[in-house]
Design goal:
The chain contains twelve helices and twelve strands. By secondary structure, the chain is of the alpha/beta class. It has a single domain, classed as Alpha/Beta hydrolase fold, catalytic domain (Rossmann fold, 3-Layer(aba) Sandwich). An eight-stranded mixed beta sheet has the order 1-2-4-3-7-8-11-12, with helices on both faces. Strands 5-6 form a two-stranded parallel sheet. The protein has a two-stranded antiparallel ribbon with strand order 9-10. The longest helix has 17 residues.
Length: 359
């Protein structure tokens, strides 16, 4: 594996596995995520819904598909916008080893899963089977439908993983599932926690489910309130940014996944969605130094800018927003990691990060 360029490293993940190929030259003006990925995960996950079928590449520790009597916990870690699932799988293994070395006796019994959300260009570059789901460069972050072979969401992929883990024959000892993500992956996790329809089978088994959200560029708000710049919140003037409250930044114009899951009982009423999110176990992790308003991978759309000038400000505002609206939501916690910037290794390799992933 070749070393990442300095630019790619700053984009999303401090140990990104993007290659130093000719496309990394100074003459290539594309963003680092707008190139085919270097590595495709070796396994695959079947995603089968009423809207169609497809597969996604997958990394898994141990033997995926076999009975796993030893797995008491599963951590699903979602990559960032570079789609570098290989780097995130390595990160997950390092974090698990660090947790075990620190005395966490259950870390070694944790199954690690890293799905890979691919772009159209990845399919062509690697000549992948036509069943492989593909999105545009970043639409999977908001749960939008894939371009093909079926209109499935990244949320459907998470549903499929949860359905597999809910099988008591395959995972009889499972007690907890953690869905975690950094940067673009954290955007998926935060939005999925609002709309999730695939957690019922785990709940029926008594398997706990937690969400870990690290350094996303934006959040989905539950109403038209936004940070007012003075430490509070106020109704935002839509004339300044007409789409500020549209999905993925608010609850207007929800994605097809939300409507497709309505038949199974998933509510679409904003108040019910908010109450559902407030009840879930959510850990927000922020890098103390992820405060660069000019970071090359920061969402600088007007919709995102209504939430703050950089990721740290947006994360602090989101935590304050939730505390103000749900002061008794004790299942929601926030950690700021000292010295960490926009760096998944620094976040999940910290004591708080390891605890969030492995208990």
């Amino acid at each position: 594996m070749t070393s990442p360029t300095a630019h790619d490293r700053a984009e999303d993940f401090a140990t990104d596995s993007a290659t130093d190929s000719a496309t990394d030259s100074a003459h290539d003006e594309r963003a680092p995520n707008e190139r085919p990925v270097a590595v495709i995960a070796p396994l695959h996950l079947d995603v089968d819904t009423a809207r169609g079928r497809g597969t996604v590449p997958l990394y898994a520790s141990g033997t995926w598909g076999a009975q796993r009597n030893d797995a008491t916990r599963a951590v699903i870690l979602l990559h960032g916008r570079l789609r570098n699932a290989d780097a995130y799988f390595e990160l997950a293994q390092r974090a698990r080893a660090g947790a075990a070395a620190s005395g966490n006796s259950t870390a070694s019994d944790t199954l690690l899963l890293v799905p890979q959300f691919l772009a159209d260009a990845d399919i062509d570059a690697h000549r992948l089977p036509p069943s492989t789901l593909r999105w545009d460069w970043t639409s999977w972050m908001g749960g939008d439908d894939a371009h093909g072979p079926a209109p499935l969401s990244s949320f459907d992929v998470v549903d499929a993983l949860l359905a597999a883990l809910a099988d008591p024959l395959r995972f009889p000892a499972l007690r907890e599932v953690v869905i975690a993500g950094h940067s673009g992956g954290a955007q998926v996790v935060q939005r999925y926690a609002v709309l999730a329809a695939g957690d019922a089978a785990l709940a029926a088994r008594g398997v706990a489910l937690r969400y870990v959200i690290a350094n996303p560029s934006s959040y989905v708000y539950f109403d038209a309130q936004r940070p007012d710049g003075a430490g509070g919140f106020a109704p935002f003037d839509a004339a300044r940014c007409p789409g500020f409250n549209r999905w993925k930044y608010g609850l207007d114009a929800l994605p097809p996944y939300a409507h497709a899951t309505q038949a199974s009982g998933a509510p679409l009423d904003p108040r019910t969605l908010e109450a559902q999110y407030a009840r879930r176990r959510v850990t927000l992790m922020l890098g103390e130094r992820d405060c660069d308003p000019a970071h090359p991978a920061l969402d600088r759309s007007c919709e995102a800018m209504t939430q703050g000038e950089h990721r740290l400000a947006r994360g602090r505002a989101w935590a304050q927003y939730m505390r103000a609206r749900h002061p008794d939501a004790s299942a929601h916690t926030t950690h700021e990691i000292a010295g960490a910037g926009h760096d998944a290794d620094a976040i999940f390799g910290s004591p708080a990060g390891r605890a969030a992933l492995f208990g």
